[in-house]
Amino acid sequence: MAKKKTASGGMNRAERVAGTIFFLVYLLVMPLLATRIFDLLEVVLDTTINDSLRNVLYYYTLFAITVLLFHSYLAHTSGRFLDNLNRSLSTMLLGLLVFYGANELIFRVCNVLNSLTNLNDMTIAAQVASAPRMTVLIVVLLAPFVEEVLFRGLVFGCLREKSRIFAYLLSCALFAFLHVWTAALSNWDLGYLILMLQYLVPGLVFAWAYEHSGTLWTSILLHALVNALSLFTIAS
Predict the structure, then answer these.
(1) 3-state DSSP of the chain
(2) Chain-centre distance for alpha carbon 70
(3) Would you write out the chain's pLDDT as a tens digit for each of its 236 residues?
(4) CA-CA distance, 14 to 21, in Å (whole number)?
(5) Do 47 and 40 touch, CB atoms closer than 8 A?
(6) pLDDT in the model for residue 3
(7) How far apart are CA 137 and CA 63, in angstroms?
(8) What is the reported pLDDT for 194?
(9) CA dist 33 to 26, 36, 177, 207, 234, Å?
C-alpha cells in the first residue's frame, strides 16, 4: 500500500479532473489545431511567426498550463525529491543504463519490421540545424517536464492505484501514440504506428524511475538527460 501512495502522491481530485481534460486536449486536439491557431494569430497581429518561435510559444504555453494546473502536486513531489536525493540519483543512473541497453534492441526490431523513418526525429534534426538554442530549450527542458507530469504523474500515478500493470501499459502506449499518430494521419499510413515500439522503452523506464524513486522529478530529469544526449548525437 505504501508504494501506491508514493506513486500517486499528492495529486488531489481537482488536479486529476482538470488535468485529464487538459491531457486529452494536449494529446488529441492541439497537434491538429496548433498550426491553425498560429496562422490566425499572424492574421490578427499582422506579423509573421516563424516555425522556431511557434514551437517555443507552443511549449511555453503547455508548460505554463501544466504548472498552473498541477502546482500543488509539483510542490509535493519536489519535497519528496529533496528528501530522497540519493535514491533519485541512483535511480536515474540505473534507468539510463537500462534505457540505452533495451532501446538499441527495440530499434533493431523496428528496422526489421518497418523501414519507415521516424518523422519526429527528422523534425528535431531540422530544428537543431535552424534554431539550436530554441530546440535545446524545448527538447531538454520544456517537453520532458510537460510529458512527465501528464504521462507519468497523471496517467501512471493515478491508474496505479487500480492496477500497476495497466498503469504501465496504458501510460506507455499513450506516450508512444503521442509521438507517431499525427505522422500516420498526415501520411495516411498506419505503418507509422509500428514506430510506437521505439517509444515503449522510454515510457517503461520513465514510469519505473518515477515509481522506484517516489518522485516525479527523477523521471523528468532522466527524460531531460536522455533527450540531451540524443541532441548531442544529432548535432555531432
Answers:
(1) CHHHHHHHCCCCHHHHHHHHHHHHHHHHHHHHHHHHHHHHHHHHHCCCCCHHHHHHHHHHHHHHHHHHHCHHHHHHHHHHHHHCHHHHHHHHHHHHHHHHHHHHHHHHHHHHHCCCCCHHHHHHHHHHHHCHHHHHHHHHHHHHHHHHHHHHHHHHHHHCCCCHHHHHHHHHHHHHHHHHHHHHHHHCCHHHHHHHHHHHHHHHHHHHHHHHHCCHHHHHHHHHHHHHHHHHHHHC
(2) 16
(3) 344 444 456 799 999 999 999 999 999 999 999 999 999 999 999 999 999 999 999 999 999 999 999 999 999 999 999 999 999 999 999 999 999 888 777 777 766 666 666 657 777 877 878 888 999 999 999 999 999 999 999 999 999 989 999 999 999 999 999 999 887 787 787 777 888 888 999 999 999 999 999 999 999 999 999 999 988 887 77
(4) 11
(5) no
(6) 42
(7) 12
(8) 84
(9) 10, 5, 17, 29, 29
Write down the residue that cell numbers 540519483 correspond to: 89
Which cell numbers in the block locate residue 130?
A: 535552424
Closest CA to 150 of 171, 180, 176: 171
CA gap 46, 236 in Å, rounded: 38
Contacts of 99 (CB under 8 A, 6+ apart): 201, 202, 205, 222, 226
- Answer yes or no: are the C-beta atoms of 15 and 72 closer than 8 Å: yes
Amino acid identity of residue 22, one-letter, is: F
Burial 52-71 (b: 16+ CB within 10 A, else e): bebbbebbeebbebbeebbe
